[in-house]
UniProtKB/TrEMBL annotation, chain A:
Membrane topology: Multi-pass membrane protein
Protein name listed in UniProt: sn-glycerol-3-phosphate transport system permease protein UgpE
Subunit structure, as described in the record: The complex is composed of two ATP-binding proteins (UgpC), two transmembrane proteins (UgpA and UgpE) and a solute-binding protein (UgpB).
Keyword NADP on entry: no
Function: Part of the ABC transporter complex UgpBAEC involved in sn-glycerol-3-phosphate (G3P) import. Probably responsible for the translocation of the substrate across the membrane.
InterPro entries linked to this entry: MetI-like, MetI-like_sf
Domain ABC transmembrane type-1, residue spans: 78-269
Record GO biological process: transmembrane transport
Family annotation (Pfam families): BPD_transp_1
Similarity remark: Belongs to the binding-protein-dependent transport system permease family.
Organism for this UniProt entry: Paracoccus isoporae
TrEMBL record, chain B:
Protein's name according to its UniProt entry: sn-glycerol 3-phosphate transport system ATP-binding protein
Superkingdom, taxonomy of origin: Bacteria
Gene Ontology biological process: carbohydrate transport; glycerol-3-phosphate transmembrane transport; glycerophosphodiester transmembrane transport
Keyword Protease: no
Organism: Paracoccus isoporae
UniProtKB/TrEMBL annotation, chain C:
Domain of life: Bacteria
Gene Ontology biological-process entries: transmembrane transport
The name this protein goes by in its record: sn-glycerol-3-phosphate transport system permease protein UgpA
Family: Belongs to the binding-protein-dependent transport system permease family.
Domain ABC transmembrane type-1 per the UniProt entry, residue ranges: 70-282
Subunit structure: The complex is composed of two ATP-binding proteins (UgpC), two transmembrane proteins (UgpA and UgpE) and a solute-binding protein (UgpB).
Cellular compartment(s): Cell inner membrane; Cell membrane
Pfam families given in the database record: BPD_transp_1
Organism encoding this protein: Paracoccus isoporae
Listed GO CC annotations: plasma membrane
Record-linked InterPro entries: MetI-like, MetI-like_sf, UgpAE/MalFG_permease
Lineage: Bacteria, Pseudomonadati, Pseudomonadota, Alphaproteobacteria, Rhodobacterales
């Protein structure tokens, strides 16, 4: 459509540039802060441009961390976060794809009951039932363990619904052809259903990885042993400790490192990320 | 190779809906049978019951000497070609052809031999390593046939395999299927809603309506002697004129028939014809023309040579043997 | 519904077993515990508990603190939803107008989705830090005194901004998708009918966008009510003077810090009911969308 409105075009770009700036502001400030020393803040204002201490601050946090806050080195916390995020993402995908397969391709008594049991998980975010869930996990002896960090979070109604949707849109004739070709249910699942759901699995993985990495309350509650701290929950412990003794440059360095992996995933796999996001809400 | 027998076969869905009732068909070894009827007549359900994709709730289906009611589709020794081809989209053409054989534990050498043979017959050799989405509709259709051929089954089942193709390709593929079947002599059961396709392919036609068999016979038998008013109206294009006997009282020999049927090509202009047609519209088809009009209050169509002169009303005559008589209730054929 | 299915009876249960086991152990069982606890009250030493019926609920109803938390949650959720959706819609409409550079702008706007709410809280806490933060410094230049540690309204504003910021990318992506699904021919027809860009937006685009808007509204309210726990905990911790103590935070605080299991259980049950209502509304929307 031909529309010649130079003023409007200028305004559009102005709005966008301003929007990008506002969105980026906190991260820029954090990044700048992470490249200075503690004394640079004591003058009362923080600098607007990066300083020369980037390598020093980051390597210090990665290797030894902020010992006064009782947190382990950032490298350790990032490893814990990675393990938790991967376990949650893979675990959710595996159990959801299996249950969606059962619900779509079989008829059995209580099928609707099973479906509703899964649906319930959608209605009960962990924050809402946090106290009793904690008690259950403590009772099972899962405090301070990778299993405790991930397993209670891997039941997922959203992922099950997504796969159910994907399977429902697969043509019936594919199962029929496979059955005539002599494939049983598991063979059909492995040879045909899984390969055809590849992109959906990848897109969902991106979303779930971010979900797992960004968990906060749960790891905060069930880890008391510093060896199991995750980075997102660890920052809070550092920030608490610095209220007396301002070490903001180090906290911000940690914050930047905590953001890096999920942000890299979103930007690097933007197409899959958008697909995953839009599909899980259908 | 095998015969297929359907013995009083019926299908009632769990909800109580009846799809098929009391169907008896005996298909000889090597015969090409076409199930034809309007949508919802139960023809696909019947085919799927033979394939083992639908449970048989009444009667018995035999393939060869074996009752297959409770036999898994893969064990029935049949192959099926689907309307949308149902090719596995993530597998190459070769993998598509091999899949069923591998699942059966066929030896590598035998698989290669059969795939090569099918590729030769269907001329799909150049596409063997492509994915289905890189093929045209006609090529996909061939691959779907190939997947059936490599299995060397006792019977081929076709579920409207040509309806996703454009008109020109449909005619070409129709001929190919016919020739292929003649060459392989494999018993075939073919479902279509297209009466022209049914006429051209079938050794014998099975016309279905409302879940019941209306008529079984060779294409010419069905065309010349339709067993009911329904078959008369369904087979043949343009469709047979069906009018109440009372609309043409002076036509001889109608006896006590309720409906009389005359094919458009059996009506001829004659100066002293018994039937008077008031012309409403004319459709030119090139070699012939279709003349639509009214006899009394009834719509009637006549096929005429395109050079004939057209007055406002036509007097028409009909050969005595070309008048079909049907009962008023139910439309069954009289004599 | 699938036409063709497999007839095995045991296999589907085996496939469902992991999901059902986890759902039961970590979701249904704790939820039932919460309901049960909401009917009990523990004595001062936490040794004995007695059945008190609906008394915990009655106490919540009569508690000024809980009513305050309800009000805070309402103000907080509505503010986050409006701020985030308004800002995102503006950006989405702008991106929809640009042709060549829309991909670049999109990339620059989607990444905050990946930032953890806790980290978002810390970042804004730092920017607004009364002694060293950049924004209080600038506000001070124009004579405005910022101190969210003692000022309840400023504390609320802080958590609203941090929570809304985190949600911008999500809303933006859905608005862009919604805008792109409006047929260009409708806007072209309006243009030929003589409607300018602004008029077109308010008479054509915005009304047609309403399914997306409604959907995002529900999602944002759910987000603000339940997923902003980390933002609150990493910044104000509910203070000052209960000014930012939203319901989810209060459940956690009363349960873990206050050790008041009966009250926390009752609060859990109320929150679950709210989630159920919101989920039902959301699913109604999905059904409506299918009907289009």
């Amino acid at each position: 459509m031909i529309e010649n409105r130079p003023f409007l075009n200028l305004l559009t770009h102005l709005v966008l540039i301003l929007g990008v700036a506002i969105v980026a502001l906190p991260v820029w400030v954090a990044f700048v802060a992470s490249t200075h020393t503690a004394t640079d803040f004591s003058s009362g204002t923080i600098p607007m441009w990066p300083g020369p201490h980037l390598v020093e601050n980051y390597s210090r946090m990665l290797d030894s961390g902020l010992s006064t806050s009782g947190t382990p080195p950032v490298a350790r916390m990032m490893l814990n976060s990675l393990i938790m995020a991967m376990a949650i993402a893979i675990g959710k995908i595996v159990i959801s794809v299996l249950s969606a397969f059962a619900i779509v391709y079989f008829r059995f008594p209580l099928r609707n009951f099973a479906f509703w049991c899964i649906f319930v998980t959608l209605m009960l975010p962990v924050e809402v039932r946090i106290v009793p869930t904690f008690q259950v996990v403590a009772g099972l002896g899962l405090l301070n363990s990778y299993a405790g960090l991930s397993i209670p979070l891997i039941a997922s109604a959203t992922a099950t619904f997504l796969f159910r949707q994907v399977f429902l849109t697969m043509p019936d004739e594919l199962v029929e052809a496979a059955r005539i070709d002599g494939a049983g249910p598991m063979k059909f699942f492995r040879d045909i259903l899984l390969p055809l759901s590849r992109t959906n699995i990848a897109a969902l993985f991106v979303i779930l990885f971010i979900y797992g990495w960004n968990q906060y309350l749960w790891p905060l509650l069930i880890t008391t042993d510093a060896q199991y701290y995750t980075i997102v929950a660890g920052i809070k412990r550092m920030a608490d400790a610095v209220d007396g003794l301002p070490q903001w440059h180090l906290v911000m360095a940690t914050a930047v490192m905590a953001m890096l992996p999920p942000v890299a995933v979103v930007i690097g796999m933007q197409r899959l990320f958008v697909k995953g996001l839009v599909e899980t809400e259908k | 190779m095998a015969s297929i027998n359907l013995d009083n076969v019926g299908k009632v869905y769990p909800g109580g809906t009846r799809a098929v009732e009391g169907v008896n068909i005996d298909i000889a070894d090597g015969e090409f049978i076409v199930l034809v009827g309007p949508s919802g007549c139960g023809k696909s359900t019947l085919l799927r019951m033979v394939a083992g994709l639908e449970e048989i709730t009444e009667g018995e289906v035999r393939i060869g000497d074996r009752v297959v009611n409770r036999v898994e589709p893969a064990e029935r020794d049949i192959a099926m070609v689907f309307q949308n081809y149902a090719l596995y989209p993530h597998m190459s053409v070769r993998k598509n052809l091999e899949y069923g054989l591998k699942n059966r534990g066929t030896s590598r050498a035998e698989i290669d031999r059969r795939v090569a043979e099918a590729a030769e017959i269907l001329q799909i050799g150049p596409y063997l390593d492509r994915k289905p989405r890189a093929l045209s509709g006609g090529q996909r259709q061939r691959v779907a046939m190939g997947r059936a051929i490599v299995r060397e089954p006792a019977a081929f089942l076709f579920d409207e395999p040509l309806s996703n193709l454009d008109a020109k390709l449909r005619v070409a593929m129709r001929l190919e299927i016919k020739e292929l079947q003649k060459r392989l002599r494999t018993t075939s059961l073919y479902v279509t809603h297209d009466q022209l396709e049914a006429m051209t392919l079938a050794d014998r036609l099975v016309v279905l309506n409302g879940g019941r068999v209306e008529q079984i016979g060779t294409p010419l038998e069905v065309y010349r002697k339709p067993a009911s008013a329904f078959v008369a109206s369904f087979i043949g294009s343009p469709a047979m004129n069906l009018i109440p006997a009372s609309a043409v009282p002076h036509l001889p020999g109608t006896g006590h028939a309720g409906l009389i049927g005359i094919r458009p090509e059996d009506l001829h202009p004659a100066p002293d014809g018994q039937i008077e047609l008031k012309i409403d519209a004319v459709e030119e088809l090139g070699a012939t023309r279709l003349v639509h009009g009214k006899v009394g209050a009834e719509m009637v169509t006549v096929t005429m040579p395109s050079d004939a002169e057209l007055p406002e009303t036509l007097r028409l005559d009909v050969a005595p043997g070309a008048v079909h008589l049907f009962r008023k209730d139910g439309g069954a054929r009289l004599t | 519904m699938k036409r063709t299915i497999f007839s095995n009876q045991l296999l589907p249960w085996l496939l469902l077993a992991p999901q059902l086991a986890i759902t039961f152990i970590f979701f249904i069982w704790p939820a039932m515990q919460a309901v049960w606890q909401s009917f009990l009250r523990e004595d001062a030493f936490g040794i004995r508990s007695t059945f008190v019926g609906l008394d915990n609920y009655a106490r919540l109803w009569g508690s000024a603190e809980y009513m305050n938390s309800m009000q805070v949650t309402l103000i907080f959720s509505v503010s986050v939803t409006l701020l985030s959706m308004g800002f995102s819609l503006l950006l989405a409409v702008a991106v929809d107008r640009t042709l060549r550079s829309s991909r670049l702008y999109t990339t620059l706007l989607v990444w905050p989705y990946a930032v953890a709410p806790a980290v978002a809280g810390i970042l804004w806490w730092f920017i607004f830090n009364p002694t060293i933060g950049i924004l209080p410094y600038m506000l001070d230049q124009i004579g405005y005194d910022w101190n969210h540690i003692s000022n309840p309204n400023q504390a609320m504003l802080l958590v609203v901004i941090a929570s809304a910021w985190k949600q911008i990318s999500y809303n933006f992506l859905f608005f862009v998708a919604g805008l792109q699904s409006i047929p260009a021919s409708l806007r072209e027809a309006a243009a030929i009918d003589g409607a300018g860009p602004v008029k077109r937006f308010f008479t054509i685009t915005f009304p047609l966008l309403s399914p997306t808007t409604f959907f995002l509204m529900v999602v944002n309210i759910v987000y603000a009510m339940f997923e902003t726990f980390a933002v609150i905990d990493s910044t104000t911790e509910g203070g000052p003077a209960q000014a930012t103590n939203i319901l989810v935070y209060k459940v956690y605080f009363d349960g873990f810090v206050g050790q008041n299991m009966g009250s926390s259980g009752a609060q859990s049950v109320i929150l679950m009911l709210i989630v159920i209502v919101l989920t039902v509304i959301q699913f109604r929307w999905v059904e409506k969308k299918v009907a289009y």
